Amino acid sequence: MAVVRKRPQLNLHLPLPETTDRRPRFPPPLPLPLPLPPNSSHSTATNHQEVDRLSDLEKLQVLGNGNSGTVYKVRQKRTLQTYALKVIHGDCDTTVRRQIFREMEILRRTDSPYVVRCHGIFEKPSGDIAMVLEYMDSGTLDNLLHTIGTFSESSLANISRQVLNGLNYLHSHKIVHRDIKPSNLLVNSKMEVKIADFGVSKIMCRTLDPCDSYVGTCAYMSPERFDPDTYGANYNGYAGDIWSLGLTLVELYVGHFPFSPPGQKPDWASLMCAICFGEPPSLQESSASVEFRDFIQCCLQKESSKRWTVLQLLSHPFVTQDR
Fold this sequence. Notes:
Number of helices: 10
Family: Belongs to the protein kinase superfamily. STE Ser/Thr protein kinase family. MAP kinase kinase subfamily.
Order of helices and strands: EEEHEEHHEEEEHHHHHHH
Strand content: 5-15%
CATH topology of the largest domain: Transferase(Phosphotransferase), domain 1
Largest sheet: 5 strands, antiparallel
Catalytic activity: L-threonyl-[protein] + ATP = O-phospho-L-threonyl-[protein] + ADP + H(+); L-seryl-[protein] + ATP = O-phospho-L-seryl-[protein] + ADP + H(+); L-tyrosyl-[protein] + ATP = O-phospho-L-tyrosyl-[protein] + ADP + H(+)
EC number: 2.7.12.2
Distance between the termini: 32 Å
Radius of gyration: 20 Å
GO molecular function: ATP binding; MAP kinase kinase activity; protein serine/threonine kinase activity
Organism: Coptis chinensis
Low-confidence stretches: 1-47, 205-216
CATH architecture of the largest domain: Orthogonal Bundle
């Protein structure tokens, strides 16, 4: 685990110890909000309902289940097209139901090859909610990490490029994901990677209330999510997605969560201290290339204003070089 220099107070207003300036060698980040990509507009896309009736689908197998619902692999009887059917029980708690409605709202707005596609949403009289989603036959990057092992730099460059394109689409439409991690990045046999699970995402208005920043998986939260006064007084959420991407790539490269030894899960307090008061994960002592180490450093700047934006990272040599 990263070295903790000082035990924090509950309000997290303790001064940070002085550290060596580790700014990237490349130009500093552009000001936020992010500019829209070329040929993009402010209007959001709406997916059309491609599956008209749940009765048209036959269940093939269970892909996963939990307290609030089940995900099935299904097939449309007429077209033989395969989908993932996510069914949320009507009696789930208020928080889960709120997250599901948020996910439904965002999926209805998005249309990108780098974001999992929604083919239909159904609300049953019983209160159950069913979402017909694009089926990714290789599961998640977390699944692959635990089945085939760590990823090569060339694979990670390809993953980075796709996730950054997905984030560029989302951020340009003022959507912050807030829960980027290996288990929320779906992959198919073609190694196409798509962003999924928008239960804690946020559609931006003018600002994102820092008090609403404690969402998502805390292990992948950026320092400003815990302590916006120190690491991001003008918290906007976009830079938090970049931090989470950086942690995700390090985990896929080394084979375990960067802030803890293999097989160990830190408690919330230790994790918070490591993120806010320890050094960011680094690949400086590994065999990683200079380009990959620098890319990770650009993502894992503790001060959100020093972190690179999506558009800058898309032009980074690690992503653009022919591998």
